[in-house]
Amino acid sequence: MQPIMSVHLAYVLVAFLALINLASANFDLYQVKVTYFHNIIGWDVMHKYMLFNDAPTCAGNGKDMVYYWDSPIPDLSHGRLGVRCEGSCGYDDPPWPDVQIVEMHFSNIPYHHYTIYKDKGYEENNTWFWPMYDIDGETQGACFAYGDDQFDCDWTFDGKIRQASGRRKFRCLTYLDADFINEAARKEIEPDSDSDGDMDWENAPLDNSTTAA
After folding, report:
1. Is the pTM of this model over 0.85?
2. Domains of the chain: which residue ranges?
3. Interval 179-199: pLDDT, tens
4. How confident is the model at residue 65 (pLDDT cuts 50, 70, 90)?
5. CB-based contacts of 21: which residues, under 8 Å, 6+ apart?
6. What is the pLDDT of residue 25?
7. Which stretches does the entry tag as region Disordered (predicted)?
8. Which end of the chain is more exposed for a tag (fewer CB within 10 A), N or C?
9. Cα three-residue angle 145-89-162, rounded to 5 degrees
10. Measured between alpha carbons, how far apart are the two ends of the chain, in Å?
């Protein structure tokens, strides 16, 4: 039987766990809203995900950030990149207890494609862990719901304004960290980006559901 706990209690318990050195890397998954100016439709909001090793800051101008599409399609196989969520997956929704599945396809070279399932999880130290499966069904770590952190940044570069707000949803304990995954994704999107690896959003195609940015 799966444990029933309040969102507040779950976060208090996992906050202690998150401070323990587990001799592994980790990354935090944030859901993000980005407001920017598109040259065709004007001001627009894109829904994204981002990965961080630590609590994000607003340092710099945001130009070198790596974003992953919040994908509406039901399957991220066959090279499709992005993050797909099933359940109560809105920006304002807590990750526990109503998110059911999170599929994360960050890059194809190397292949970073992982899925976590609530109903395949297990309880440990009063926390519900979701095994992190690769496409071969092998576990590459485990994730847990880990909210209670957010950021709000206003960035300006090359005369362009970009506003980003993010809320943490999960922490994944694995041998991979955010820098390693983000670097792989940055190299993969380079053909469709400028010299700094940041997509030219102002002229981007409006149908962007299957592409990483």
Report:
1. no
2. 7-203
3. 999 999 998 875 444 433 345
4. confident
5. none
6. 82
7. 186-213
8. N
9. 100
10. 39
Return the pLDDT at 170.
98
Q: What is the pLDDT of residues 12-52, one digit of tens each?
A: 344 444 444 443 689 999 999 998 877 788 888 989 999 99
Cα 186 to Cα 3, 122, 193, distances in angstroms: 39, 33, 9
SS3 readout for the chain: CCCCCCHHHHHHHHHHHHCCCCCCEEEEEEEEEEEEEECCCEEEEEEEEEEECCCCCCCCCCCCCCCEEECCCCCCCCCCCEEEEEECCCCCCCCCCCEEEEEEEEECCCCEEEEEEHHHCEEECCEEEEEEECCCCCEEEEEEECCCCEEEEEEEECCEEEEEEEEEEEEEEECCCHHHHHHHHHHHHHHHECCCCCECHHHCCCCCCCCCC
Q: Which of 177, 172, 178 is nearest to 129 (CA)?
A: 172
Whether the link from the prior residue into 3 is cis, omega within 30° of 0, is no
d(CA 97, CA 118): 9
Q: Residue 117 phi/psi, 5° resolution?
A: -125, 125
Say how far apart CA 198 and CA 66 lie, in whole Å.
7
Taking the C-alpha atoms of residue 128 and residue 5, their distance in angstroms, rounded to an integer, is 10
Token representation of residue 27? 């990354």
The mean-pLDDT minimum among 90-94, 142-146, 166-170, 202-206 falls in: 202-206
Structure token pair of residue 56: 């994000």
Amino acid (1-letter code) at residue 127: T
